[in-house]
Amino acid sequence: MRYGVIGTGWIAKSFIDGARDVCGSEFAAVYSRTAESGNRFAAENKIEKVYTNINEFARGDFEAVYIASPNRLHYEQSKLMLQSGKHVICEKPITVEPEELEELQALADEKGLVYVEAIMYMFNPARDLLKEALSKIGKITSAHFDFSQLSSKYPAYQRGELPNIFNPALATGCLMDLGIYCVYPALDLFGLPEKITACAHFMESGADGSGTAGLLYPDKLITFTYSKLGQDRLGSQIFGDEGTIKIESISKLINMGITAKNGDIQEIIGDVPKEKLMGYEALGFERFIADPSDEYYQVTRQRTLQVSQIMKKIRDICGIRFG
Ligand SMILES: NC(=O)c1ccc[n+]([C@@H]2O[C@H](COP(=O)([O-])OP(=O)(O)OC[C@H]3O[C@@H](n4cnc5c(N)ncnc54)[C@H](OP(=O)(O)O)[C@@H]3O)[C@@H](O)[C@H]2O)c1
Hints:
binds NADP nicotinamide-adenine-dinucleotide phosphate; Dihydrodipicolinate Reductase, domain 2; 14 strands
């Protein structure tokens, strides 16, 4: 598969490295707002063509686009790429509003194109291992997922700068950046909740710096915490009456294990490099392009829409607004 790339941050490099490694994908072009940044990224990643005009990029010689721009731009850029006949894999969160996602899913169908969110969880082989492990810990009545990662941009914010990730005008903040990684496994493992509670801590910029949410089911309660202002050291856990599943990273599903009621520990999976996990995203995306009737494409699309809808509800409860 030949890709064009939108965005020149570190995550775009991880996706390129992973897709080349896992799928042998080709990267033909990059779009950047500036020739300087585009040329630097192209040289670092051995990409031939640099565009600084997005309409010209949309007519480029590649079949698929990977989008890694700030969240606020995902909708309009994805729409332009789909209208231009490109398959799209867009970074999380795929759109800001669930209605935008539905509109673009319909557009992709109309054009016979594949449109997916670049979310490690849905393409990670460890997702199946986790599902299998659930059956070994008895009756599950609660789980706690945490994704708290001290932002590398926080010192700049403290110096009075406004990095994109703390700028509500770009539809960023903690829920959109990290909370989403808690919502995916909750919905995928346990389905839609009956009730949601949530609250957020706001920074002076108006961005949510940290937050918490609770998903209530008839037989269980799933809680989340997420923060960009502090670092988690404990991980996530799923509690059953026969044992506990511990997950070091809820986004990557790495270093997972079961501790049985009697204290015995059984490893589920160890470490996996992030580039590999991003390569699996590319693998799934390319599989869907090769066979759009693949049942898992429908599962993925539906889950992505559910996640977007629940994220919107959490935002409404917390009062998270984007400028
Ligand atoms: N999957 C993951 O693990 C993961 C990790 C990190 C981020 N992400 C996602 O990837 C996306 C990008 O995140 P990021 O942290 O890389 O974002 P970022 O650094 O703020 O921006 C990414 C790129 O977009 C362009 N850009 C920056 N500000 C812009 C603006 N105001 N208007 C238009 N273009 C702008 C820049 O490229 P040019 O200057 O070259 O145009 C920049 O390199 C987000 O959706 C985020 O959620 C995913």
